[in-house]
Amino acid sequence: MSSCGAPEQGTALPATVDAGKETVLNGKVTRAGEPVGGAFVRLLDGTGEFTAEVVSSAEGDFRFFAAPGDWTVRALHRDGNGETKVSASGPGLHEVAVSVG
Hints:
There is one protein chain. This protein has a single domain, classed as Carboxypeptidase-like, regulatory domain (Immunoglobulin-like). The N terminus is likely disordered. The chain is mainly beta. The protein is built from no helices and 8 strands. Pfam families: DUF1416.
């Protein structure tokens, strides 16, 4: 677990998470198709306001628990930056891919 209190990042959802009731933004940061670890991944709400930040795992994985709505996921890394928009209309697992470079 990171020092900022963010949950450990990875591909598998924790057993205590019910994706039928939670809105989960689950994704991967890549560069030229390869995973990017150590990227600062930020979640911005529909107005562009900062909401949360995690650091991608060594495999580039990240996860946010969010409310339904429109979000921007932005990745910042020494090799480049990238962002993508995601619309999470309701509970469920919403896959997000962010390419940096």
